[in-house]
Amino acid sequence: MQNPDQWLRSLVFIVQMYLAMFxxxxxxxxxAIWKRDWAFRGVHSYCRWVRWSAAWMxxxxxxxxxxxxxxxxxxxxxxxxxxxIIIIVSEVPRPKFIMKKEIKWAPIVGYxxxxxxxxxxxxxxxxxxxxQMVADVxxxxxxxxxxxxxxxxxxxxAGASAPYKIGTGVLYRETGQDCVPAATNVGVFWRRHGIMRxxxxxxxxxxxxxxxGMKIEPFMKELETAIxxxxxxxxxxxxxxxxxxxxGD
Length: 249
Prior knowledge:
Blueprint: H1 4-34, H2 36-57, E1 60-65, E2 73-77, H3 82-91, E3 95-100, H4 109-115, E4 119-121, H5 126-139, E5 146-149, H6 167-175, E6 179-184, E7 200-206, H7 216-237
Parallel strand pairs: 1-7, 2-5, 2-6, 3-4, 3-5
Antiparallel strand pairs: 6-7
């Protein structure tokens, strides 16, 4: 059963979250047009605001564990909701994403995504998307940073499963970069859909990096094992009961 007070707090939190995005965009966008570094400052400021406001408005605190990558790496993360993106981007110095092409046209988000070097692909055409990702990553070498990709390709609810897609392995091989896996439990508290935000401790954990040079198949196995094992541990720590969780609670 939903807590009416927590639901109302969650609604107010969501409204202020988007209002803050608009107000920060008014301030940072002229500066971001002038200099790219200001786009990163704006993105970091917004993500840190969301984490801070979530803690006091809805009781959802957040924590980062492990060594935050600061060099040129591929960052492969479990993706359960918008909040894991918020936490990761608030910490890594030069985040950039493999993202859906449609996001380019989203107000505010689309501009900043392009400004910080995100790579837009058409995910409806898998083989072409992989080739485009590799070409865009290589051509974007003049914009160093942490390339964030979600190996399962989409948000996956806490306690649910979805296959890991080969695109991460292709990028790992073709870029020749180390890969840092990241696990999370944020979906226990911030679901993919619905208004409710549950109190608790949301964690993103950066795991030991996988050095470059492995073949794709063993790399994908090691990546999936690392992320799923750590994410299951974090979700159990958060009190996940897969049999009682309902999307949108």
